[in-house]
Amino acid sequence: MRFSVATIRKIQDVFISEMNKGIHQQPSSLQMENTYIPELLDGTEEGLYLALDLGGTNFRVLLLELAHGAPVRQEVKRYYISSELRVGSAIPLFDYLAECVSDFVISQGLQDVELPLGFTFSFPMVQHSLDVGILVTWTKTFNCSDAVNKDAVRLLREALDRRGDTKVKVVAVLNDTTGTLVQGSTLDPDTAIGLILGTGSNACYLERADRVEHWETERHGEREVIIDIEWGAFGDNGVLDFIKTDFDRENDANSLIVNSFTFEKYIAGKYLGEVVRVILARLTKEGLLFVGESTSESLLTPGSLTTDLVSHIEQDSVDGDDSNTKEILGKFGIIPDEDDIRIVQYVCEVASNRAALLVSICLATLLDRIDKERITIAVDGSLYKHHPRLEGWMKQYISLLAPGRKFKLIHAEDGSGKGAALVSAIAQRLKKRLQ
After folding, report:
1. Which end of the chain is least crowded, N or C, by CB within 10 Å?
2. Per the database record, which ranges form the Hexokinase C-terminal domain (predicted)?
3. Is the confidence at residue 418, as pLDDT, over 80?
4. Residues classed as catalytic
């Protein structure tokens, strides 16, 4: 799980190759999706903007007030989506979303005000323009099959029109990664990369518009555009198999969809704990760990060791302590000796460090590709936020892999909410300019 310099170079080369293929619409494991967002905030944005953030069992409606392109007030309300709506037909689901948007807008006394809305739709989609996003497949707990291959924006617009009780206009569709980049740009104008490192992982960046082949709308001399890499699937076509270990193969076999989200399975919160568990279970079976302890059945159960526990064990390594490690192993019915504790902490370190290095390899490659004097990377996600060592390792590795590049990592929270409202403000500004 430790990479040689030659392996690191090979990963970089493969990432560059897959990016270039994806952006030229050749077969690639990287989608390199055009978001049709050609610029960030310019400080002229004023007024009220809405966001609808749909990605899980709860969703949010958010109102953002902007003055001189900066948020000055925010109102938000959360709503729950029942399992019946999540797996039924598309129309009842989108009717419910429209009902909640309407409920929120009316509760704010804004039913007679024209409100642009940015729709964060955190599911795989193909974008044909800033306000057309075709659903490729549902993920997580959603499965309204009649919505697949349909435009999510149109479904929401039609549901809002059926109600007719507000003046909400859906002007943009995006995912949380794009929202994070845009949200980051309000904190630091040098932001050019958005990164999600949470349960899942993805990144997007500002690309030169002349490099982008997939552009279905009319061009208006755009210099840049945000490209959504969709890097969770990096390696789904086998190009990363040279770093795959037996532990990764077992982690993949235990996952919901085998041979998919290959890169995510190395780096994301949904899988990091399972990689550690697979290694610990193997060491236990081979008599190298917890010798004399009765093997805990729960440790041999896929999914039993979650990534938050890995973060707690890593905190012990930072603090030179054992208390978290002992407590966590105790929950598995294991009383560890000194060697066991060191081995468990080492395994957590190796798996976490590999994740940090893989993310850093790709980020360093993006810094070279964007080629600006200063670049800020806006990051959000639970793994990045709660793991005590990831950020430090990433800074260290990116500096080594992109020497001479000036970069900064900032935490940009709530790209899926605030970011979507900000994108709707950008969309309105672009629309006015072209009228």
Report:
1. C
2. 193-425
3. yes
4. 140, 176
